[in-house]
Structure formats: C-alpha cells, structure tokens
C-alpha cells in the first residue's frame, strides 16, 4: 500500500526506493515483483539520463542495504526454500487424489509423495527436468486450487469493482505498476499455490485502485460513483458475514 501511495503521489525518489525495497524483501516471492517494478520506475520516467541514473542509484542502494545482512551472516549450507516449498505443496495437492485410506499426511511426509515422481533433485531446476509432465500437472493443480481460494476468501467480490476502476484511471504509470504487482501471483502458482492468507496482500492493491479512481473525479456528480459506493457497501456487509466462521475457528487465548 505504501509503495503504491508513493508512486501515486510522486514522492521523492529516496522514499519510494526505501518503500519498494521493504516491499520486495518482505517475502522471498516478492523479490521478483519488486525488482521488475524498480526497473519500470527507472525506465518509465521521462527524465534526463543523469536524473534516471540518480533514481537508479537510490533504488540500488535501498535494495543493497537490505541484502547486505544475507551476504554477511553465513549460516552454512543454504536452505533451498523454493525447492522445499514446491515439494510440500505438490504433496498437499496430490494427496487429495490418493485412493488408499491411510495416505501419509502431506505436510510432514511430503517426500513420500515427491520421491517416487521426482526422485531426490538437488535443485528446483533438476526437479522440473526430472519429470516435466508431473511438474505440468502440479502447475495446473496449483492454478485450480488458487482460483478456488480466491473465491472462498471473498477476494473475488472486489475484483469486478477494481477492474471497472482500473480501466478508467488516467495515470498510466500507476496502472502499469498495479499490473506488475499482480505478477506476484506467478511465483506462487509455479512454486506452491495461493493460500487464503496469501491473498491478504492483494486486498490493498485492489482497494487502492478503487480509491485512486474515486479520488480523480467528483463522486457527487456521477451516478457510476454512487453505484460503486453501493457496491462496496454490499461487499463490506458480505465480508462481515463471511468473517463469522473465521472467529469461530480461531484459537483465542484467555489473556
């Protein structure tokens, strides 16, 4: 949200660079999205090359400052998070299709599902090349589960309103930045699947697009704005209703 706000308000380059770097390093799967957005912000600006170079320097410094600790503190053999994530999520997705009644629990016994199919790959690339068809199956299982989670999470309720507003935004740079941020779905689809909790990051993205459209024109003189307001109120009511089972399923501490 802060990254979008800084782009929308044309804040000074150091502020945008710091916010974008914090966004990119908040989770490993966001590094790609943050890097693409940084490149876009450098190339898009219609500025002289010295000013573009200065903007690039701010972004590089912000990214490097957060990356330095990973280079300094050596914890021995690196942990291949992407490979482990794919193996675990593959096990979860295919465990639902097992016919035996006592199939192993997928999260803690993920190698029981992956080894017969992918063997013991030393890297993510090796896993994919060992059995590309099985990886192909995984990607489409991931896509199906992700679409299902988009629906049950309630995020799908906001998508039509966001699409309507995004198409009418006048700031083309902001529109493209939003699309780049939505590309954050791709690493999730290719390495795991979109959990319901992952979708929380996309609520600010969609809501900020709706806010930006509402802020660029006078809502009192347009019936579409009134319809949009009514739509958002209905979505809010539905989200409150859907929130009740979440509270019932929660583990609450007495203190």
Shape by Cα distribution = flat
Helix content: 55-70%
Strands, total number: 0
Uncertain runs with pLDDT below 50, 5 residues or more?
A: none
What integer is the average pLDDT? 86
Determine the strand fraction and express it as a percent band: under 5%
Oligomerization state of this entry?
Answer: single chain
End-to-end C-alpha gap: 32 Å
H and E string: HHHHHHHHHHHHH
Helix/strand/pairing category: mainly alpha
Radius of gyration: 22 Å
Q: Helical stretch count?
A: 13
Structure description:
With 255 residues, this protein is mainly α. It has a domain of 78 residues. Helix content is 69%, strand content 0%. Helix 1 packs antiparallel against helix 2, helix 3 packs antiparallel against helix 4 and helix 3 packs antiparallel against helix 10. The chain is flat and about 60 Å long. It starts with a helix and ends in a 6-residue tail after the last helix. The model has no long low-confidence stretch (mean pLDDT 86).
